[in-house]
Amino acid sequence: MVPKAAAQLIAQHLYRHRRPHLAGAAVGVLLLSIILILVSGSANAVRSKALIERFEVPLYIPEIGLVDYQLPSEPVWQELTIRPGDSLTSLLQRANLSPQVVAKVIEHKTARRQLHRLIPGDKFRVQVEPGDKPRLLGIDYKLKDDRILSVRLDDDGHYYPILQQPEYEHRMRFATGTVQTSLYEAALASGLSDNLTMQLTEIFGWDIDFALDIRQGDSFSVLYDVQYHRGEQVADGTILAAEFTSQGRTYQAIRFVEDNGRSQYYSPDGRSLRKAFLRTPVDFRRISSRFGKRFHPVHKKVKQHSGVDYAARAGTPIRATGDGKIVYRGRKGGYGKTIIIRHGNVDTTLYAHMRHYARGMRPGRYVRQGQIIGFVGQTGTATGPHLHYEFRVHGVHRNPLTVRLPDARPIKRQYKSRFAELLQARNNQMGLYKTRHLAMTEVQ
Ligand SMILES: [Zn+2]
Asked: Which CATH architecture best describes the domain 286-398?
């Protein structure tokens, strides 16, 4: 990346000539110009500039990456990528360390156990004191469960391991865009990752049909949180608040996290943006039979069809349409392999002709909306692989395609005041970012 290389060069050059403040300023100027191009991240720029002035190394500048400009004699953190077949020995050799150090590193059994299997593609960070005989000072290795194994050299020359939960730094970002050709392109241009774009469409997917309803001029603004660890982005981020204006109508969503860690998106008046039920339990190819009277292909007579049939490839995952408890799982005559879920006191949903059930699905088990409960098949009376889906209210069959789906629960009473405060904060943040974005657009 050109900006990264340039920043690095300027910084190194100036540092060599012992003009740290100029180095800071130069990188700062470069940063600011980049920030003008980029929509977000000005707060980070200020922060980075402060970091440069304090000369913390190695330095991470958002949008640029790692910039090393420390003196050669300083211990350096290097990042190695584990290759297939790598052992701790071969890995440390790449950092110019002697194989003898390995035995000392794995002296302690925690380190031995965790460094026994290295996963190709993973990052492995080592801190090395340069010199004729480079000395290993530390190792940081992110484990599968997200914990970090840190190994450090103590004053007695022993390496001791520490397992720690990563401390993430959270940075707020903002993106906004207007649809010209497609939502996808507008989102991309605004700097949203695919993952965040998907989150956006999922949040508003209950109110806006993103396949059909998107028009030129529709717009969105997104406030999101990005997690960093040691200056490196570790996740795509989570949407904190979002607005979507579709055909002149604006929808708003605020993310609220309950004490138990469960999070949901609510409208400013505290309504959930979800419905209590998904409209369809499966990604289907076509609806092969609707609710109502029809000529039955197997029984050869007109019968009431009390559900909807979704033709789908055998093995397609079937999702619980709402939170609830499994009350039946087993073969059920012509239905074949069937699961029935009870949602609250009045509603039940039924899923039939399954090829097999998902693991652990048994009566009494609670499932979440969208959770996979089984797979499409043609057990029971069926002419091809499909899901037969029924929706009952007070035991009475209703048409799943047209039944009015109740909203998911609104913000709980005990969280109302906290939600009100959060809403205010998010609106302020959103307002600030929007103003700044407008100002920047005018400068350009
Ligand atoms: Zn059916």
From this structure: Distorted Sandwich (2.70)
How far is the C-alpha of 146 from the C-alpha of 122, rounded, in Å? 12
CATH number belonging to domain 76-164: 3.10.450.350
Q: So what's the architecture of 171-274+408-444 in CATH?
A: Roll (3.10)
Give the distance (Å) from ligand 1 centre to CA of residue 405.
20
Question: How far, in Å, from the CA of 208 to the mean position of ligand 1?
Answer: 28
pLDDT tens track for 119-151: 888 889 999 988 888 899 999 998 877 788 999
Give me ligand 1 centre to Cα 285, in Å. 15
Give 286-327 pLDDT, tens digit per residue. Answer: 788 888 877 666 667 777 889 999 999 999 999 999 999 999
- How many angstroms does the Cα of residue 324 sit away from the middle of ligand 1? 22
What residue has token string 């925690």? Answer: 110
Q: Rounded to the nearest whole angstrom, what is the distance from the C-alpha of residue 288 to the centroid of ligand 1?
A: 9
Q: Where are the domains of the chain?
A: 2-67, 76-164, 171-274+408-444, 286-398
**Ligand 1: distance of its center to the CA of 362 in Å?**
23
In angstroms, what CA-CA distances link 348 with 280, 320, 331, 351, 399?
Answer: 14, 11, 17, 10, 13
Average pLDDT over residues 146-174: 86
